[in-house]
Write a structure and sequence with these properties.
The protein folds into 2 domains: 140 residues, no CATH class; 238 residues, Purple Acid Phosphatase, chain A, domain 2 (4-Layer Sandwich). The protein starts with a helix and ends with a strand. It is an alpha/beta fold. Strand 8, helix 10 and strand 9 form a beta-alpha-beta unit. The chain is 45% helix and 17% strand.
């Protein structure tokens, strides 16, 4: 990432984090409490939590792994709770503010201070309890690990020899501060029991350097399938040293596809596996498909769903992607819909091209998944027509 983009990101993120913590302090401490001492303690608590959020993610990359996990869980856990608290408080304000405006329009006086205090305390208690309960459910869902999603993809005119081809997809594992080698070993065991003809990893495998995380991704060398494991880059590889990671994956026996394709033969039938770099990096579908026979079945690996238009334009039959995490913490999926054409699941994009969006095999940031469980996808191609 260019230095100016990093500075811009840190400036925006820092300003947003500071604003949210001021808002939370006002709604959860200043409004419902009258004690000057309690308010002073609250200011220090929210200042500390804000600093934890701003620095915890970066610090865990430079301290010993065991300490980094503690810091990571604390910083990301608070991030998840903020993600739940703020919309709930906004919802309360969306009701309270119009009522206050209407009272003023009618010439009514301000709400009695005792009643106002009771309302503030009730709102703070209700939102905190609701967010805490939702966070507990979300943590339980995330720590339960991925479940296998079985998906049938109907392909018109598919070569009969490819009917029944099994593709197992992993995406957005995010090996890093809170997910390590035991999690990856579990994924390998699950995948190896699914009878895959090929395994696809569609980006955002890691959050950290090869030096820090290489031992944690090493079990990927034990993935087993008929034709091997294929990988395309996600945006987080570019934050973690993309060239070093691509070399490491090649060393583990994973085929890295960076704007290129490889041809395979399955039971005598030809197919191509196409991989492109992340949408925000050196994404080049034309280069990836250069020289490919469009009559052959084409499987495309691309991190972001935004790539689907280019995949369709180049006559590819099925695109596998991730990036969205399915929203990860509901209702974030509603926001994702504003920037991505698809959020999760199987969709027919054009007459020829299908897209499948994996909800993510791990998680990023908060160890939470609310109404959006992680997944390993087992896709089976079926001939129709």
């Amino acid at each position: 990432m260019a230095w100016w983009r990093m500075v811009l990101f840190l400036g925006v993120f820092g300003g947003l984090a500071a604003g949210l913590h001021v808002y939370l302090y006002r709604r959860l401490v200043r409004d419902p409490l009258r004690s000057a001492r309690a308010r002073r303690v609250g200011r220090w608590v929210f200042t500390g939590l804000g600093l934890l959020l701003l620095t915890g993610v970066a610090i865990n990359r430079f301290v010993p792994r065991h300490l980094g996990e503690v810091i990571g869980y604390a910083a990301f856990g608070w991030m998840g709770l903020v993600t739940l608290l703020v919309p709930l408080l906004w919802a309360v304000d969306m009701v309270r503010i119009p009522l206050a405006v209407r009272r003023r329009a009618r010439g009514e006086g301000p709400v009695d201070p005792t009643r106002r205090l009771a309302i503030a305390r009730g709102a703070a208690a209700l939102t905190t309890l609701t967010a805490g309960g939702a966070a507990a459910v979300a943590v339980d869902t995330a720590l339960a690990g991925p479940r296998v999603e079985h998906v049938t993809v109907p392909i018109a005119g598919l070569d009969p020899a490819l009917d029944g081809l099994v593709v197992v997809q992993l995406s957005d594992i995010h090996v890093g501060p809170t997910l390590g080698r035991p999690f990856v070993e579990g994924l390998v065991r699950m995948v190896n029991g699914l009878g895959a003809d090929l395994v696809a990893i569609t980006g955002d495998l890691v959050d950290g350097t090869v030096g820090r995380l290489g031992d944690h991704t090493a079990p990927l060398a034990h993935l087993r399938s008929t034709h091997g494991t294929f990988f395309c880059t996600g945006n987080h590889e570019y934050y973690s040293g993309v060239d070093a990671w691509c070399a490491e994956l090649q060393r583990l026996g994973v085929t890295v596809l960076r704007n290129r394709h490889v041809g395979l033969t399955h039971k005598g039938a030809a197919l191509d596996v196409v991989g492109v770099d992340d949408w925000r990096a050196d994404h080049d579908m034309a280069r990836a498909c250069q020289g490919r026979d469009a009559a052959r079945f084409g499987l495309c690996l691309a991190h972001q769903p935004k790539s689907v238009a280019a995949a369709a334009a180049h006559g590819l039959d099925l695109m596998l992607c991730g990036h969205t995490h399915g929203g990860q913490i509901w209702p974030a999926n509603l926001v994702v819909r504003l920037v991505q054409p698809y959020v999760k699941g199987l969709h027919r994009h054009s007459e020829r091209t299908w897209i499948y969006v994996n909800r993510g095999t791990g998680y990023w940031g908060p160890p939470m998944r609310l109404r959006v469980p992680a997944e390993i996808t087992r896709l089976v191609l079926r001939r129709v027509g």
